[in-house]
Structures are given as C-alpha cells and as structure tokens.
Amino acid sequence: MQRLKEKVAIITGGTSGIGRACAVAYAREGASVVVAGRRRDAGTALAASLGNGSIFVATDVTREEDIEALVHSTLERFGRIDCVISNAGSGSATGPIAETDPKAFDHDFAMHVRAPFLAMKYASPLMVARRTGCFINVSSISALRAGYNVFGYEVAKAALAHLTRCAAIELGEKGVRVNSVSPGPTRTGIFAKAGGVDAARADERIEGVEAAFATLLPAVQAMPGMVHAEDIANAAVFLASDEARFVNGHDLVVDGGITAGRPASTMQADWQALAQGLQSSGVR
To answer: Given this model, what pLDDT does residue 224 score?
Structure first.
C-alpha cells in the first residue's frame, strides 16, 4: 500500500543521509518529492531516480529568500504542498562557552531553528487554506539530554523541539500537524564530515563511522548498533501518513533506548564496582 500516494513533500538537506533516505522512502510510498539542498549534481540525480515527477531545487536554508523560492517552486510545479521535512543540518563550531565565537552560535540557530521556522512561515498558509498538511522537524536526542554533542547544537535542537510544540498548538487548530523526530547517533556521513571528509565522499565512510561508535554506544544504549537513516525515514513516513492523522506536537524518539536510561549491564557493572569500593574501604 502506498501510504503517501499523490502527496507532495519538500525535504531539505535531501541529498544525503537522513534526507536522502526520506526522499527514497517517500517516493516509494507514492509521494512526489522536492529534494532541496546545496549539491546540485547529487540532488538532480536523486530526483531523477525517484520518479513521480520529483524535482531538485537548489536551496541554502540559512537564506530566507531560498526557502521562499523553494516553496514557490514547489507550488508552481505541483500546485500543492502536503509535507515539509526540515532536515537540513550541520555540525556545530561551538566549543567551551567562554571561547566560542558568537557567530558559530548564531549559525546553529540559523540552521536548526530559523530555517524550520521559515519553512513553516512560507508553506503553512498553503496548507491552512486546504486545512491539511504536516511539518516534520528533524531534531535530536541532544534536544532532550545534554552531553551528547557540543552545546550550540544541543541548545539549538532544544529550541527546535519547543518551536515544534508551539507551532503544533497554533497550526493544529487549522488542520495542520507539526511533529518532530529525534534520532540518536545515526549511521550517516555527517560524522565523517565533522572529521574533515569532503561532503561528496562522506557517505562512503559510513562503515568507519559505525566502527568508531561501536566502542562508545554499549555503555549508554541498550540496543546494539547505530540508528540507520532508513529508521528515521520510516518514522517520517508514518508521521506524514493518514495513520498519524491525530498525532500533533509529538517528538518521536528513535535512539535504541538511550534516553530511556542506562543499559542494565552498565548499571550492574557500576553496582559491582561500588560494592567492591565499599568492601575495600572497610564498609560492611
């Protein structure tokens, strides 16, 4: 069954990683996809492969005029917008608070908060006029727990989570749903980019990224392995489908249990270490 048949979806940051996986999943479910991103060659090739009349629109989401043009281009081509996935993102250049350039902090908000706001500003009137449609903001577990990324990224994602709730209570009254998805560490090229790999080749290094995380995650995540981009795409398909018609203002966490709490094995090991410490200290 094609759950998104005849729907039109805009996906920012659609040329790689989670955005690309969402584009493929949406097209498979019958949607026409507008792939938005900065890499023209990759975006054009992806849109051509999706079928359903899908197109690419070159977009820098930190530029208001680009987002406005993206919405207009979609409307010109398809005459409607049913879903906008605000997925475009980047690593943060913030570091210790006292040493961080305010411009780096501003960039985090421009990318992860201002851009989704602008997408809603320009696309929501079209949805409201038809009293149907949805926005899906790609957030992060960093919106829910500190200590998994640098502070600028975490603060911006927390702001995005609240923007989602605020928009949901306004637009929900007008028939438009607003939700978010919060991935845990996800098997994409973004970590390779952070390590200095060129964006065009970052997705080729995914296996190395997963291997690097293999030693880190077991202490904080109950289910083994990284989240896959397709896991987030599946969640986004559900949120855009009629199956989620009454889901509004919700943050769908896909993290293998990180935010649920420490794995049982970690807790048991810590209790054993505590017991040994108490015994060696003479506490009986």
So the answer is: 86
Q: Closest by alpha carbon to 54, among 71, 36, 72, 38?
A: 36
pLDDT grade for 282, boundaries at 50, 70 and 90: confident
Q: Indicate the angle between helix axes 115-130 and 151-171, nearest 10 degrees.
A: 10
pLDDT for 190 equals 67
Residue that the structure tokens 């923007």 belong to:
163
38-80 per-position pLDDT tens digit:
999 999 999 999 999 999 999 999 999 999 999 999 999 999 9
CATH number for the domain harbouring residue 152: 3.40.50.720
- Tokens encoding 156: 């911006």
Report if residue 100 sits inside a domain.
Answer: yes
**DSSP per residue, 112-173:** IIIHHHHHHHHHHHHHHHHT--EEEEE--GGGT-SSSS-HHHHHHHHHHHHHHHHHHHHHGG
pLDDT per residue as tens digits for the range 88-103 = 999 999 999 999 999 9
Provide the domain count of the chain: 1
pLDDT of residue 256: 95
Catalytic sites, residue numbers? 153
pLDDT at 204: 65
Q: Which two structure tokens, joined as six digits, stand for 251? A: 């943050």
The neighbour count for residue 75, using CB atoms within 10 Å, is 15
Supply the pLDDT for residue 84. Answer: 98
**Domain encompassing residue 222:** 8-280
Q: Is residue 20 part of a domain?
A: yes
With a CB cutoff of 8 Å and minimum separation 6, the contacts of 167 are 120, 124, 135, 178
Counting beta carbons within 10 angstroms of the beta carbon of residue 210, is it exposed (0 to 12), middle (13 to 18) or buried (19 or more)?
Answer: middle
Residue 230: inside a domain, yes or no? yes
